[in-house]
Amino acid sequence: MSKESKEPTNENSPNLPDQPPQLDPWGQGLFSEEDYERLTKEFGIGLIQDVDIPYSMFEKNRFLRRKIIYGHRDFHMIVGALQHEKPWAVMSGIKPSGRFHLGTLITASEIVEFQKMGGYVYYAIADVESFVDNGMSYDESFEYAVDNIADVLTLGLDPERAYIWMQSREPRVKDMPYTAGRHVTSNMMRAIYGEREFALYMAALVQVGDILMPQLRDDVMPTVVPVGIDQEPHIRLVRDLTRHFSKTTINLETGKEEKIPFFKPAATYHKLLPGLDDINKKMSKSRPNSYFNLGDDPKSIKKKMMGAYTGGRANREEQEKLGGIPENCMVFKLLEIHFQPDDAKLQDRYQRCRGGMLCGTCKKEVVKVILDMIQDHNERKKEFIPIAREILSREPY
Ligand code: SF4
Predict the structure, then answer these.
(1) Model pTM score
(2) Spatial distance between the Cα atoms of 235 and 265, rounded to a whole number of angstroms
(3) How many CB atoms are closer than 10 A to CB 387?
(4) How far is the C-alpha of 234 from the C-alpha of 24, rounded, in Å?
(5) Class of CATH domain 33-272
(6) 281-381: which CATH number, 1.10.240.10, 3.40.630.30, 3.40.50.10490, 1.10.10.10?
(7) Residue 249 to residue 271: CA distance in whole angstroms
(8) Where in the chain is CATH 3.40.50.620?
(9) Is ligand 1 within 6 A of the CB of residue 311?
(10) Rounded to an integer, what distance in angstroms lies between the CA atom of residue 205 and that of residue 226?
(11) How buried is residue 131: exposed, middle or buried, by Cβ count under 10 Å (0-12/13-18/19+)?
(12) Rounded-to-integer distance, Cα 157 and Cα 116, Å
């Protein structure tokens, strides 16, 4: 699931200086292409390019189409459910400890795209995790949750085809540390997460309930969880524990009870977004120019965009002769992930960049695109604030 960007608070984070970065759902990593390759092999993650995905799915999901999603587990189950017109779910969530920023917005946008493809959405507000990881009260988290859900609704989530819950109020997930905890040892948690505070292990078990929610609340069905690669440890934990869950039904032919095992949740993985100011560094609150929130002052966003890291050449002459490198440019990355839904316009910018457009000219145009889009988003968001508050005030159902 997605998480609020912050410096790692946990001194036991498995990421140590001078060692290759590890997957840490509560830290904040940045991985090189070699790291992605190493982690993919180490944990047996599949490559999305190896899944036979029908064109209609690419059409409806820009994260698949633009290869922003690169890895997966069992994604073929979702493809199969779609092809056989069987129900399937997309599950995600947010730790409500801040407003959406460029990083956390990715997962929120992904669930909207998966809903467009036909998935029923299950969305967790991980306020238990905000309390454990950030020391934030449930009341404080609630206000951020309202803001976050209003953003997701503005992005296009259809609330009629979604179940949204607060962890602290949902017994099906709050009880999960006991239910799933019967099958978990401390060695197992250490192997997956490293040596951490016990409360973080508990929060991870609560999240098992979140990820299994489609099958706990409704029917046994394939579920996909779109996440950043750093959340992979949660996926491994829940997939390992799923074998202990089933639903009992009556076989109408024999009249006997039958147990139907839960599907192991599938997952898709996207690469982590580097800092806006330096493609080789992670986003960090200690470097305010490395990110912005959708609610930030337009002047501040413009300033950060004008100072963004680009794939431009050393000087004007080289840029005009050789062209820029959009693959190495944070300006282009932001358009690709968030701010240019139109493929033809994105392709046009790619070509103009390769054709020698100057970065200053390009940035000015992109700033206008981004600020217009954010202004429109924030205008439309106003009407969703009371709706988000009402949704989050509902009792679990
Ligand atoms: S021209 Fe635009 S897309 Fe190309 S490197 Fe410069 S800022 Fe990036």
Answers:
(1) 0.90
(2) 8
(3) 14
(4) 10
(5) alpha beta
(6) 1.10.240.10
(7) 40
(8) 33-272
(9) yes
(10) 18
(11) buried
(12) 9
- Using the Cα atoms of residue 51, residue 54, residue 55 and residue 57 in order, give the sign of their dihedral: negative
| DSSP 8-state symbol, 101 | B
Which tokens is 235 given? 């996926």
CA of 297 to the centre of ligand 1 (A): 24
Please provide residue 328's backbone torsions phi and psi, each rounded to the nearest 5 degrees: -115, 30
User: Could you tell me how far CA 190 lies from the centroid of its own chain?
Assistant: 24
Mutate to test the pocket of ligand 1, among 279, 306, 332 (most ligand atoms within 8 A of CB): 332
Q: Are 203 and 193 in contact (CB under 8 A)?
A: no
Distance separating alpha carbons of residues 373 and 102, to the nearest angstrom = 14
Centroid of ligand 1 to alpha carbon of 354 (angstroms): 8
CB-ligand 1 contact for 310 (6 Å cutoff): yes
**pLDDT tens-digit map of 238-292:** 999 999 999 998 888 888 899 999 999 999 999 888 899 999 887 877 789 999 9
How many Å is the Cα radius of gyration of the chain? 21
**pLDDT by residue (tens digit) across 11-60?**
455 555 556 556 777 766 667 788 888 888 888 999 999 999 988 888 88
Which residue CA neighbors atom 4 of ligand 1 most closely?
353
- Chain length of the chain: 397
